[in-house]
Amino acid sequence: MKVIIIKDNKDGKVNDVIDVSPGYASNFLIKNGLGVPYNKENVKLLNKRLEAIAKEHEIKRQHAIELKSQLEKVNLTYKLKVNHTTGDGQTHHSITTKQIMASLADSGFHLEKHSIEKIHLNYIGNHKIVGKLYDGIEFHIQVRIEEDV
C-alpha cells in the first residue's frame, strides 16, 4: 500500500511517498498521524504543497542573489593599533566575526548568525571574507585593516 508521509519519521520525510504493507500503513502510519493513504485527493494536495515549496524556495533564492550583489559592494574599514615589536603588521587586537556582523547590521544588512565563519583578522592590509546565504550562495566582503596612529 502506498502512503504519503506527513510527518518526518523513520520511514521517510514529509511529502515522501513510500510503499508499505497494508497493516503497517493503517495500524501505525495512518493511525498515528504520520501518513495518509495515496489516493487522487491526497495526491492533489501533495502536488499543491510541492508547488508551494518550490515557489517559496525560488523566492528565497532570488532574494539571496539580490542580497549577494548588494553585499559584494560593501567595503569595511577598521583602524587598529599595531604591535611594532614584531614588525610584520600584526595588531594588538583582532577584528572578529561579531564585529563584522555588527558593521553589516549598521549598514542595513541583517544576516543570520552563522552566515560568516568565525574569523580573527589581526594583520594590517586587505582581507576577503566569505559568507554563505540561502542554498549555498556565497558572497565576498572586502575588509581593510589600517594602522591607528
Automatic annotation (TrEMBL):
GO MF annotations, alphabetized: rRNA binding; structural constituent of ribosome
Keyword terms of this UniProt record: Ribonucleoprotein, Ribosomal protein, RNA-binding, rRNA-binding
InterPro entries: Ribosomal_bL9, Ribosomal_bL9/RNase_H1_N, Ribosomal_bL9_bac/chp, Ribosomal_bL9_C, Ribosomal_bL9_C_sf, Ribosomal_bL9_N, Ribosomal_bL9_N_sf
A Gene Ontology biological process term: translation
GO CC terms, sorted: ribonucleoprotein complex; ribosome
UniProt keyword S-adenosyl-L-methionine, yes or no: no
Domain Ribosomal protein L9: 12-39
Function in brief: Binds to the 23S rRNA.
NCBIfam families, per the entry: L9
Annotated family: Belongs to the bacterial ribosomal protein bL9 family.
HAMAP family to which the protein is assigned, alphabetical: Ribosomal_bL9 (MF_00503)
Name listed for the protein in its UniProt record: Large ribosomal subunit protein bL9
Organism: Mycoplasma testudineum
